[in-house]
Design brief:
By secondary structure, this protein is mostly helical. About 75% of the residues lie in helices and about 0% in strands. The protein has 30 helices and no strands. It has helices at about 5-10, 15-50, 50-60, 65-95, 100-105, 105-110, 115-120, 130-135, 140-175, 180-185, 190-200, 205-220, 220-225, 230-240, 250-255, 255-275, 295-320, 330-335, 335-365, 370-385, 390-400, 405-410, 415-425, 425-435, 440-450, 455-460, 465-485, 490, 500-510, 510-540. α7 packs across α9 (about 140-175). The longest helix is centred in the first third of the chain and has 36 residues, at about 140-175. The protein is globular and about 80 Å long. The chain starts with a helix and ends in a 7-residue tail after the last helix. The relative contact order is 0.14.
Length: about 550
């Protein structure tokens, strides 16, 4: 480290005190948002005893449960296959043009039911599709209606989830040797054989993308619920409504298949992450060599069309259903309480996410015990990420409403902040771990030698290089908080107004004017957030994950 840099570090907190304070803050956040609700759930199950849950499970797991599980797995698999299939060309576009990545997050920043509702306008009363569905016998009408609902749900969820598949596959594509790709292109083989070879080379990231989307779809209740497709998550939702707070342990017994599957997927993801972190190879290039002109243009064109189908088309279709075009203009004034409470919560959640990113980065960059604390928090965040939002919200609400001393938390917006933190902590945790991995051992050793190993020294010497990345992670979490519905409906306290809950009510009531106005508002907000993230990543110029 240059002498000029050493002179600017100045006085700082003693080395043991800085990491201790950061560890304490990070541990308190994860204890309040994740560990405490998980402990209460475990205690309630233990207090229920081994006999009662078994008896209750027989009540829930009736003759139709196996069919429900099969239907749930089939629906999740179809959505995952569709999302991976359409995302594969987009992954090649991301591989050589990472600047477009923030804008591909826009579908994820919108509620998953926006694409469902927008494309559903095609079968609205008076349309040709609606007339075709209504034509024929009663049995034919029932079959066509069921098919239309199912296809609409699969289409909507696939258009929402495909960016996840594209990002995961693109991360795997960056590890392909460019020389190997050049050799494959020069081989005198048919296009079909080359395509099969590429699929074989990228089967690992494809399977990871499928697994991640599959486990997310297992717990996805809202789009399937609106489409009247009975899945396991919807049955759990109904059981929650029918169960008294004192008997909520019954819900966890019934939900055990979903919880075990999602926790297993989370453990596998965490293990894969730390196996990658053990490597000490040099970072890959920021952008891989572009595809040949024609293939690259086709991949980019497909990505743009897919983005339009996921964002522009459904929102535009909803906009055409508005009887009053001024509804979109008057949206903020008419629904100010919901916007106020939702935005205030999102800002607090974003601040917490910023701290998580920075704390994990700082602690994981140090090694020894501090790194172990960061690793434990990352594991907790990844483990909770696949758990259905309904169950995350249920556990949070129950944990903070169980005792009189914690009841003020359950009756305030703080419980919403805790639920959203638990739901999306994996984003800042992974961002912080990623930033720590970009610091080579040589740079860490030089920083320690030059006296920049304390908290203030680290902030002055290391933090400015990628500070904008922490802001990008916070902005992404804020947008996810704004549109989160499944965890929110379980914890909303009295007097709190939720924008996501209000939009879901409009969807159920078929109030197209309000739903379209809300979708337009969220789309503008999502685009603004994507632009902010793009600017942050451009300024920060973060190093990519090492393969």
């Amino acid at each position: 480290m240059p002498a000029s840099t050493r002179r600017t570090l100045g006085p700082s907190l003693p080395t043991p005190l800085g990491p201790a304070l950061v560890c304490l803050g990070l541990a308190l956040i994860f204890a309040a948002a994740i560990a405490w609700p998980a402990l209460i759930v475990a205690l309630e199950l233990a207090r229920a005893g081994p006999v009662r849950p078994a008896a209750d499970s027989r009540d829930f797991f009736g003759p139709g449960t196996l069919a429900m599980l099969v239907r749930t797995f089939a629906a999740a698999a179809v959505v995952s296959l569709a999302a991976v299939a359409v995302a594969y060309p987009a992954a090649w576009a991301i591989r050589s043009r990472r600047a477009i990545l923030p804008f591909l997050l826009i579908p994820l920043f919108l509620p998953s039911y926006v694409a469902y509702a927008g494309w559903g306008v095609l079968r609205a009363p008076g349309t040709r599709l609606a007339a075709w569905i209504a034509r024929g016998s009663v049995d034919a009408l029932e079959l066509k209606t069921r098919l239309a609902y199912d296809l609409q749900a699969v289409l909507g969820l696939s258009l929402w989830a495909w960016p996840i598949a594209a990002i995961v596959i693109a991360a795997g594509l960056t590890r392909l040797d460019p020389d190997l790709l050049d050799t494959l292109r020069l081989e005198p083989a048919s296009a079909r054989r080359r395509a099969l070879t590429l699929l074989n080379l990228t089967r690992a990231p494809i399977l990871w993308a499928f697994a991640i989307i599959f486990v997310l779809m297992l717990g996805s209740a809202v789009p399937f619920h609106v489409a009247q497709l009975e899945t396991y998550a919807i049955a759990i939702w109904r059981l929650i409504d029918l169960t008294a707070p004192a008997d909520r342990w019954r819900v966890w017994v019934a939900a055990s298949p979903l919880v075990l599957i999602t926790l297993a997927i989370g453990a596998i993801l965490a293990r894969k992450l730390f196996s990658l972190a053990d490597t000490d190879s040099q970072p890959a290039p920021v952008d891989a060599p572009p595809l040949p002109t024609r293939a690259g243009r086709l991949a980019l064109a497909w990505t743009v069309l897919l983005w339009i189908a996921a964002v522009i088309v459904p929102v535009s279709m909803l906009a055409t259903t508005m009887d009053e075009p001024t509804a979109a203009v008057r949206f903020a004034a008419r629904h100010w309480p919901a916007l106020r409470d939702t935005f205030a919560t999102a800002l607090v959640v974003a601040a917490v996410a910023w701290f998580i990113t920075t704390a994990v980065w700082f602690l994981a960059d140090r090694g020894s015990r501090a790194s172990a604390v960061a690793a434990a928090c990352v594991v907790l965040a990844i483990g909770v990420a696949p758990v259905p939002g309904l169950l995350v919200g249920l556990a949070t609400a129950r944990a903070w409403a169980l005792f009189g001393a914690t009841q003020p938390v359950a009756d305030s917006a703080a419980v919403v902040v805790l639920a959203h933190t638990a739901r999306f902590a994996f984003v800042p945790a992974l961002a912080g771990w990623w930033l720590a991995r970009t610091q080579t051992r040589t740079l860490r050793d030089l920083r320690r030698i030059d006296g920049a190993d304390s908290l203030v020294g680290w902030f002055r010497s290391c933090f400015p290089t990628n500070a904008w990345v922490t802001l990008a992670a916070a902005a992404a979490v804020a947008m996810l908080s704004i549109q989160e519905i499944e965890a929110s409906i379980m914890v909303i306290p009295p007097g709190y107004h939720s924008l996501a809950e209000w939009m879901l009510q409009q969807l159920h009531a078929l109030r197209q004017d309000d739903l379209a106005a809300g979708a337009l508002f969220l789309t503008v907000l999502a685009v603004a957030t994507a632009i902010l993230i793009a600017i942050c990543l451009r300024i920060g110029r973060p190093e990519p994950i090492r393969s």
